[in-house]
Amino acid sequence: MVYKNDSLGFLAVMEISHATKNRFFEAASTDMTFIWNRGCPMNVVVNQMNHQLLQNEVVILTNHHRIDGIDFESARLIKFDLPFVSHSNDAVENDLKGTLFFNPTHVPILSITEAEMHAFESSWEVFRQEMKSRDSLQYAMLQSILQRLMILCTRKLKKEHLRMPKKREADILREYRFLVENYFSKHHDVAFYASMLNKSPKTLSNLFSSLSDRTPIDIIHERIMTQARTQIYYTTKSIKEIAYDLGYEDIQTFSRFFKNKEGLSPLQYRESRCAKEEAVTD
After folding, report:
1. Is the dihedral of CA 221, 223, 227, 233 positive or negative?
2. Number of helices (H) and strands (E), helices first, in the chain?
3. pLDDT, mean of residues 9-33
4. Closest among 153, 159, 134, 170 to 33, alpha carbons compared
5. Confidence tier at 194 by pLDDT (50, 70, 90)
6. Closest by alpha carbon to 60, among 179, 165, 148, 150?
7. DSSP assignment of 79-148, as one string?
8. C-beta of residue 142 within 8 angstroms of C-beta of residue 10
9. What are the Cα distances from residue 271, in Å, to 48, 150, 165, 243?
10. Side-chain half-sphere of 233: how many Cα atoms within 13 Å?
């Protein structure tokens, strides 16, 4: 079941099986993808990293998460574009930025307990029924149900965090990740993001050290590497073109950065991935 509107975005809600999986599993085709495993353990490879989902576990992906492989029995799928949540209030939007969507190096996975099952099941049933409606109120209802599901997921993920930062500090970290998501291909220095947040680089570093196991520069580098791996492996662009796309003026600087992080040069990485793919094909 699909809802599509040129100005209000795209939304798909469906139950799928192993036999129909190839039609739907391309996270990059929409901004957001929720996969709710309903059967035996599911194996999903995201950005070349394998994850296993047990029954009633949910994985949340953005268009920066490429699904390289997936094996499952049955699942529920929700795919949508950001316009569907663009009218959320500020509190909801801040939670979405940090908890669910704007951390592309992390794959959020949550487990629905028996006590929580009714809330998720009832939302799913209302979702399915409302997708069949065809009136002027359909969009408002669909947006409301989608927001409810996202809030349920956000609450779950927050409960599973052992350390809960203060709200203002958490907001700064969310905004930092959001800014990196928008500017990582042009700006690689912490000072740029610190100035946009009206903070000093030192203040940001201290904040990250108290709330996270990563530094501000780690966030930038991880985002660049995620995009670099994707472009090197999945496109035919030259390494020079990829370096330019990611904000590097010369290929040598990019190659040194990539090798320092990956242990292989960009060209070696491309060749090794192609060799593995050929081995699997053979």
Report:
1. positive
2. 10, 9
3. 73
4. 153
5. very high
6. 150
7. EE-GGGGTT--HHHHHHIIIIIIS-TTS--EEE--TTTHHHHHHHHHHHHHHHT--STTHHHHHHHHHHH
8. no
9. 15, 40, 43, 17
10. 17
Determine the 3-state secondary structure of 76 from DSSP: strand
pLDDT digits (tens, 9 = 90+) for 100-156: 665 545 678 888 888 889 999 999 999 888 888 878 888 888 888 888 888 888 888
Categorize the per-residue pLDDT at 167 as very low, low, confident or very high, splitting at 50, 70 and 90. Answer: low
Q: Which tokens sit at 164?
A: 């809960």
Question: Which residue type occupies 282?
Answer: D
Element of type H or E holding 198 = none
Q: Tell which residue, 59, 62, 64, has the closest CA to residue 228.
A: 64
> Contact at 8 Å (CB) between 150 and 82?
no
Tokens at residue 144, please? 């409301």
pLDDT at position 91 over 60:
no
Residue from 28, 44, 45 nearest 36 by CA = 44
With H, G, I as helix, E, B as strand and everything else as coil, classify residue 15. strand
DSSP state of 203: H
Whole-angstrom distance, CA of residue 173 vs CA of residue 171: 5
Q: Provide the residue type at 269 as one letter.
A: Y
Q: In terms of residues, how long is the chain?
A: 282
Give the tokens for residue 248: 């590097």
Pair 268, 261: CB distance under 8 Å:
no
Distance of CA 45 to the CA centre of its chain: 13
| Cα dist from 54 to 13, 51, 72, 195, whole Å | 21, 10, 10, 43
- Residue 281: pLDDT over 70: no
Name the token pair of 106. Answer: 């992390």
